[in-house]
């Protein structure tokens, strides 16, 4: 049950947004065992005054076109799956909509399964105690 939140500078067209959604979702399906229809994603655009990213941190040459992708997911994947996810997201977003690999910043936030309510006020993934 990943929740994907994408942040970028304001000004991209709807087609660009859709390509971001499709690329990240496809990468999660291919590498993270995300089931079909498990799709919860948002995009937030920012003006330059509300978006600050280091252009050189850790030796990566970022442009103003950086895309920050935060994925919140259950803590059930191993390091190999995580590395495959990061690489696949970069490959797909480079192909469409043309994001430079250096401009793809990914943050994976892992949580326990009981930290989700998918609706109706229930913790659907929680293991019942008792």
TrEMBL record:
InterPro entries: Tauto_MSAD, Tautomerase/MIF_sf. It comes from the Bacteria. Pfam families: Tautomerase_2 (PF14552). This is Tautomerase family protein. It comes from Actinomadura montaniterrae.
């Amino acid at each position: 049950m990943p929740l994907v939140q994408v942040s970028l500078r304001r000004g991209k067209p709807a087609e660009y947004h859709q390509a971001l959604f499709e690329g990240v979702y496809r990468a999660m399906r291919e590498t993270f065992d995300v089931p079909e229809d498990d799709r919860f994603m948002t995009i937030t655009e920012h003006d330059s005054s509300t978006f600050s990213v280091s252009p050189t941190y850790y030796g990566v040459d970022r442009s103003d076109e950086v895309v920050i992708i935060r994925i919140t997911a259950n803590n059930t994947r191993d390091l190999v799956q995580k590395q495959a996810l990061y690489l696949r997201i970069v490959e797909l977003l480079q192909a469409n909509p043309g994001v430079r690999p250096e401009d793809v910043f990914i943050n994976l936030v892992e949580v326990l399964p009981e930290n989700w309510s998918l609706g109706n006020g229930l913790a659907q993934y929680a293991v019942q105690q008792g």
